[in-house]
Amino acid sequence: MKVLEIRNVWFYYEDEPVLKDISLEVEEGELIAILGPNGAGKTTLLKIILGILKPQQGEIKIFRKKIEELGDERRKIGYVPQNLVPNRKMPIKVSSVVLMGLYRGILKFPGEEDRKALKEALEIVEMDHMADRQFNQLSGGQRQRVLIARALVSKPKLLILDEPETGLDPSFHEGFFNLLARIRKVFSTTVLIVTHDVTAVSAVVDKIACVNRELITHGRPEEVLTGENLECLYGKGAAFFGHGPAPHIVVGKHHHD
Known about the structure:
By secondary structure, the chain is α/β, with parallel strands linked by helices. The protein has a single domain (2-252), classed as 3-Layer(aba) Sandwich (Rossmann fold). Helix content is 28%, strand content 28%. The strands form three sheets. It has a six-stranded mixed β-sheet, with helices on both faces.
C-alpha cells in the first residue's frame, strides 16, 4: 500500500521556484530519508505533505486520499518539527507534553490505555525516568526526545520528522537513527525523515530521496549515494570521505585546500 504519493509538485515563493516537479512515492512500512543541503526545499516539501502549504501545481495523497479529504485520519500522522522552541516560563510536566499527542477535547482526561501509550512512547525514547520532570528544565536533546514521544503516543501510521537529530545529546545522537528503526518495528510505522546526516542515515533507511529543489534521485542508499549525485546536491566544491558505499563526511572545500 502506498502511504504517501507526491505527484508533480511545484511550489513558488513569489516568482522563485522552491520545488520543481517533485514526484515521490512511499510504501507502507518504509523508512525513507529526504537528503539535501540547506535551502533545498526539504522543509517546504514537508509542509506541503502536512497540508500547511498548498502547492501551485501537483497533488499530495496520504493513505490514498487527498489532504483535504483525510478528516480524522490526520490523527494517523505524527510530526516532529524542526527547532521547536518551548515557552520556558510555562510549567508543564514531560508526561503532559507527551499526552498532548492524544488530545481529544478539553474535558476528556487520559484513561488507562492512554497512560499505557504514554509509558511505551517514553520508554522507546529512553525518557520514562523523567516523566514527572518539568519540560522546561530539560536539555535541548532531552526536549527533542520528548517531542518525538509526543508524536509517537498516538501510534501513528506515518511519522514525519524534520531534522530531529539537531540539538540531541552527543551520547544519544549516535543511536538516534537506530531508534527510528526500532520505532518502525515496534509501532509498524512508516517513517519519513528530513536530515543532512549522510553517514548515520545511510546505515538504517530503506531509501533516500535526494532533493535540491528538484528530485535528483531516489532509491536504495548504495544506489543513490554516488559522487555524482552528491555533487548535484552539495556542489562540486564538496569533498566526500569514508569507506564502503556511503560517504562518512560531507564538507565544503576551502580555497587553501
